[in-house]
Structures are given as structure tokens and as C-alpha cells.
Amino acid sequence: MNIDGLGAKSLLCALFLAVSGCTILSDSGPSSGDINSGSTQTGPQYSIIRLTPEVVEAAGEYGPGGIAVTFGDKRPPPEITFGIGDVVSVSIFEAAAGGLFIPLEAGVRPGNFVTLPNQPIDTAGNISVPYAGAIRAAGRTPAEVQRAIVDVIKNRAIDPQAVVALATQNTSLISVLGEVNLPARFPAQPAGEHLLDALTRAGGIKDQGYESWVVLERKGKRASVPFGALVYEPQNNIWVWPGDTIYVYREPQTFLAFGASGQQGQFPFDMWRITLAEAVAKAGGLLDIQADPASVYLYRREPRELAERLGVDVANFPGPMVPVVYNVSLRDPAGYFLATKMQMRNKDIIFAANAPSVEITKFFNLLQVAINSASTSTGTAEELQLVRLYSHTRVK
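Given the sequence above, the corresponding C-alpha cells read:
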């Protein structure tokens, strides 16, 4: 096999281009160029956003779908009304004896009133009052039922007044279930209570606060937040309404780290929230012989309104969530300050891209293996000469 100098160089160039342009060199993920191009052949499209102080501030205003966002009504719960199955007590007062309920011969009494036996509200939503008949109670407040009774008997009794009270509350209940110490359904408080108050009545949560999530269901709507969001973000500790269901479950918040980080895998927050800088540190930092500090990426899906605020053309992304890749340069000293302000979210992905020089290093390591193999094999002198020529070719 005879190869002249020009032919060897041509073959070497072709070989280098073939090697550098194919997947013969293994990678732990996409290159920074691939990511920054914003294109993909198989997965969904995404948008690249450079991390700036304005971006960090905007992202911080959109938490993981807080309860306060889903249930925007900040008012206290409405006054508790009677429901079918509630047991009520009724007392009727008259101004003097000799009326409808107090006979003339009643003599000395502690008061001119009569107390009716406690009775449940029937399936029609009514209670029975002597001389008044069926009085609608379901869906009404005690004051409304009192006025209804007085309106019916006022022409027959002497200046009557009625007092209606809830004896046994079987409706207007709040359910607290899941990972709490005393799961139960209990009556709503007339004065109202907040989410943390309801959890306290259920004996508190079983697990660590940073591993617990709280779900609130109300009238077909649902929202969940980490337990810490109720404590550290008081706007999420909203009023509980009668009929609400609160469910507590354990799910440690985690993130994934890939690429040129000290460690790759899934990592727990171990607190209710952490920053991007803390997450990179938990993953072992960046490998100084491999990572490109300017190419650290954070993958997540953001609400459509936030993506639009950040300048993304959301017309290209159907659905309420938009795939976004944030890029922070840790080569820039200011990047560390941004990373300490950028809050991580559950299931975020961090990817640290390789430095361009790493690919060249991989290439020459592979080449050295070929040289050693050729030196110890029974290959021809011409083949060995070609490999050696290849190893001395400079790649610019």
C-alpha cells in the first residue's frame, strides 16, 4: 500500500472530518451549540432565555401554582348555614303569659318562653314549629330561620321572638385527610379558620415539612403547594370554607443533574426550597477539567403568561405551559449572584455542557488508542505510517 504525502494528508483530513462529524465520540448530553440553537429533531420545541436580574425577578413571581393563585377570593368564609341532617334547637319567647305558647295559669316562670325538642332538618330542608308548620331551614342562617318563625306566628302570639341554634352540626364540615396525625371531618368554625388552623385541628402533619405537600379541593377546583409555602408565604394560608377537603401527602422535592457536574443523578432539596446555586453545589459543582462554566442550563416548563412576559413567542407553543431553558454563565462573576436568586422548583433539570476543548481531548485520546493498537498489531508498515502521520496532524 503506497501513500504519498499529499494522499496521506487528504486521507487524514477526511478521517478527521468523519470522526468529528459523527457520533463516534461519546457525549453525556447535547453541546452548548445544540442547546442554543433551540431546535430539536424528536422532542418538543423550546425557548432559550439568558438569565438576567429582570428574568430572575419575573420568574420569582410565579411559584409552583400557589393556592393563593387558584383560590383568589381572600374573604373569610360565608356565615355557616343549616343543612339537611343538622340538628337544631328552637326556643320561642312571648312578652306576656296568656299568648300562644305561655298560658295565663303558668304562674311564676324563669322566663316566658318554651323550648321545643331538638329536631333534625328533614330531607325537604324543613323543621316543624307548632302553630307555624314547616319552616324552611336548609340553606339559611339561624337569624333567617328566626325571622321566618316570627313572621308566621306574630299575629297569634304576644310580641314573639325566636332563638334558633345549631345543636349538632352534621353539614358544613371540613375534611383533613392523608399524612396527618388525626385525619377527620370536623365542623367548620363559625368564626372561620385558615389552612394551618385546620391542619392543627387534625394533629399536624406526620412528616418533615419540606417533604410534605398540601392539596386544597373546593367546588371542583384543586391546588397544591409545599407545606413550607403555607408557613413562609402567608398569602397561601387562606381561609378554609365549609365543604373544603384538605389532603396532605409526602413527596420529597427533587431535581436532576446531568452533564459535566461533579455528580449526576436525582437529588433531594432537603428543605422546602433551594436556589440554582445551591442545587449546583449539591450536585458536586462543575468539573473544572470538563465543564464550560458559560453553559449551565436549567430546564423547566413555565406558565404561558410568564413565558410571554420574558419575550417568548408563545404562538409557537400550544398549551398552558411552555418549555423553557434558562442559561446562566458561571464564567461571569455576576452569574453566581443570579444563581443565588433563581429559585429551583420540583423536578427541575440542570445540565452543564462540556467545554469545546473536551471534544478535542476525546479525539486525541481515541487517536492514541489507535496508535497503540497499530504499534502492537501485525498491520503493514504503510498503515502504521498513516496512523503516525494522522497523530501529528494539527487540528485548528
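The longest strand covers residues 291-303. Try to locate this feature in the C-alpha cell string yourself.
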